Amino acid sequence: MLQPVREKIILGIDPGTNLMGYGVLCVRGVKPEMVAMGVIDLRKYSNHYLKLKYIHERVEGVINGFLPDEVAIEAPFFGKNVQSMLKLGRAQGVAMAVALSRDIPIAEYAPMKIKLSITGNGQASKEQVADMLQRILHISQADMPTFMDATDALGVAYCHYLQMGRPSVEKSYRGWKDFVAKNPGKVRG
Q1: CATH for 7-186, among 3.40.50.970, 3.30.450.40, 3.30.420.10, 3.30.565.10?
Q2: What is the C-alpha to C-alpha distance for residues 9 and 102, in angstroms, rounded to an integer?
Q3: Which residues are within 8 A (CB) of 98 and not within 5 positions of it... i.e. 6 or more apart?
């Protein structure tokens, strides 16, 4: 007998040092639904350490507000600028530390994996990811954000939803003979 599937909240984070995106999915049974998405705007801070403090405070606020069961975060990709990479890694680390301090499990996904799982193309543009999420999750145009960092974060959460496997709501069968054996009234001849 199948057990009812409980509700699960997934927080997706797209780390950044100017704009950090977040997206929240609620999965009820096997159906994901967008709850919220937005950005943490860090552009007014010139001091990198103040940005890290603000990231901590805001991620803590998002976690307190939505109480996620799991956090999915985009892994930094290797770029040519080592200083940018270091700053991005610090921002990601602060966000992860906030989740870990609450004993919230974290999953990390490469940008290419996220794009591939949503669009079928690992080289998809931010616009293509946003458009696909809008269609899949039935997000109105009015609810689409100005900054794509928010849809990127929602994409991380949706990628995690896909990777965690959708709970089965129907019987599983080992083949046609097994189906016939378990459903004698549905098969003729």
Answers
A1: 3.30.420.10
A2: 14
A3: 56, 59, 60, 63
Q: Under a CB-based contact definition with an 8 Å cutoff, are residues 148 and 127 in contact? A: yes
Angle between helices 126-136 and 148-163 (to 10 degrees): 60
Each residue's pLDDT tens digit, 150-186: 999 999 999 999 998 644 334 455 565 665 676 666 5
| The Cα angle at residue 37 between residues 36 and 38, in degrees rounded to 5 | 135
For residue range 23-62, what is the model confidence (pLDDT) as tens digits?
Answer: 999 999 889 999 999 999 999 999 999 999 999 999 999 9
Q: How do beta strands 19-28 and 31-41 pair? A: antiparallel
Task: List active site positions.
Answer: 14, 74, 149
Residue-wise pLDDT for 119-133, tens only, equals 999 999 999 999 999
Instruction: Check if the beta carbon of residue 69 is closer than 8 Å to that of residue 104.
Output: yes
Q: How far is CA 103 from the centre of its chain?
A: 18
Identity of the residue numbered 17: T
